[in-house]
Queue: 2 jobs
Job 1
Amino acid sequence: MVTLEGVGILTVTRPEALNALNSEVAQQLVETAKGLDGDRSVRAIIITGQGSKAFAAGADIKELASQNYSQAYNGRLLETWRGLDGVRKPILAAVNGFALGGGCELVMMCDIAIASETATFSQPELSLGVIPGMGATQRLIRTVGKAKAMDMILTGRRITAAEAEQMGLISRVVPQEQLMPEALKISRAIAKCSAPVVAKAKDCIKRGLEVPLSEGLRYEMREFWSCFALQDQKNGMAAFLQKQNPVFTDG
Ligand code: HXC
């Protein structure tokens, strides 16, 4: 993990296994993200994979292969990842290559996803005799809709970065060498905003995935009103009226 100008960069580093996500990686990544969430000097988090071949080629099949039901249930297999749900700060996935199975699911756990032109995505779990276990059956349908979710999960078809962008799985595609500069550019833009306001926006959007529209709109309204309790609302609007750049204090 490195931090760069208020941005925490988490890199999955298991090149020998194409950055497959074993339990140690899961634990470290989730705990580090939670730590960064509590660090006031960090305003956004980027997750990427080492090298240019793989973001993450999935959960670690070698680790999963010998598990039985009792071990999976009692050991809460893959549940560690749920920890990312509680992170308030925005998390950006910079997808640098294969994002397969759990790798693709990790992309969907993030708030913003951008990819290099050579990145590919798939949910190949059915070919391994299991269903997705890191959220794809739920997040994919909310991200790309039923038709594409069924297609990806039931066929395991690998899709390109361009197709992933077209279907809304990711928001931008850039040349490989531009991936981290672009991820940092996006993160720095977010970092300039008021941290509690950014957190409120993220929270409202995530809430919208879970509740009916009328409840989501009510939730947004209350959170919007609560912004007026912040000095940052005063600073932001005063700066606009004075034709100056806003300076936010996170208060
Ligand atoms: C463990 C993996 C791995 C994985 C690759 N490796 N993916 N190890 N878990 N998910 C290892 C290989 O065993 C190999 O190690 C090394 O990485 C290099 O991989 P190769 O296959 O030799 O590379 P290549 O021929 O370029 O093929 C790349 C690939 C292929 C197409 C990405 O590796 C592949 O199909 N990987 C599995 C992708 C997958 O099915 N992911 C979903 C996992 S299940 P050795 O030691 O042999 O050299 C999942 C479900 C989660 O994520 C939730 C439900 C349980």
Note: The first helix runs from residue 23 to 37.
Job 2
Amino acid sequence: AAKDNGRHTFSVFSPQSAQMIKERLKLRQEVFSALERRQFVLFYQPQISAANGAVVGAEALLRWDHPRLGVIAPGAFLSMLEDSPAITAVGAWVCEEACRQAREWELLGYRLQMAVNVSARQLADENLPPLLKSLAARYGLDTGCIKLEVTESMLTQDIGKAAAVLRSLQAEGFRIALDDFGTGYSNLSYLRQFPITAIKIDRSFVQEIEEDRRCLDIVNGVIAFAKSLKLSVICEGIETEAQACAIRSTECDVLQGYLIGKPMPASEFQALLLAQSATPQQAAPGCGQPD
Ligand code: C2E
Ligand code: MG
Ligand code: MG
Ligand code: MG
């Protein structure tokens, strides 16, 4: 890492950024062979019930276990894949690996909702529903245990195709969550046009919930609205007890965030599941106020 040289100067042409540009170009060359080299792994982030704190789901998050650089998050490489047809094969691998893992945990006695993020290209691909259907069958999973996370921007790109794909997924019983809710235009007609079953309230609302009273008002409003449409609600990005407390004061169903657990390798997630069932299920803390 670059050391502070004592002068408060910053140049985009500093040796460090030249190095970074070189590194990026190198990554771009390497990312397309990462799948065949079996360098992709899935991390899992726990999702807990707001009612009783039980782990009810896992979000599968892609990681690149790079031989030189270690484990890399999608921010550094996903867009390179998404710009190319290569994302289809990587996305299919993500689906399969998440299903395989969900089955493994189910056989251990943990029936979780497995959330899988999909890319715009996957959502515009009519092969996605049959792929997922065959994976669910192969791994003996109820399709209702698999939840696809899509973002609003994907729904605006190829509306006709995305709607058709989502409808066949819905017909097979898969769940569909609208991710990062509140960051786009939040065109509410999407909720009518597309068979969405859950919304994930973006972490930007959770982040400011203590400082900005309006955030809690917005979250409450969005949840009331979601509930009237019979959608389930997940809040993501919960990092502090105070934020968890504020969210628990709402009708939010499921909590997710670093406070509850960071994305982790499957082995760690499994240890968490085992530890949970070893201790009696605790009710969610009442935030100091008896109710
Ligand atoms: P996302 O689906 O909105 O996932 C949530 C992101 O927020 C994850 O970043 C997660 O690690 C991070 N996060 C979770 N809790 C907290 C928190 O309390 N605080 C903060 N600051 N961050 C939190 P990650 O894993 O780097 O993934 C970034 C994005 O990459 C995801 O956003 C998703 O859009 C995309 N992505 C990840 N895995 C896949 C995949 O397998 N396929 C596709 N198509 N996209 C993926
Ligand atoms: Mg997501
Ligand atoms: Mg999100
Ligand atoms: Mg996102």
Note: Residues 59, 117, 149, 179 surround magnesium ion (ligand 2) (CB under 6 Å).
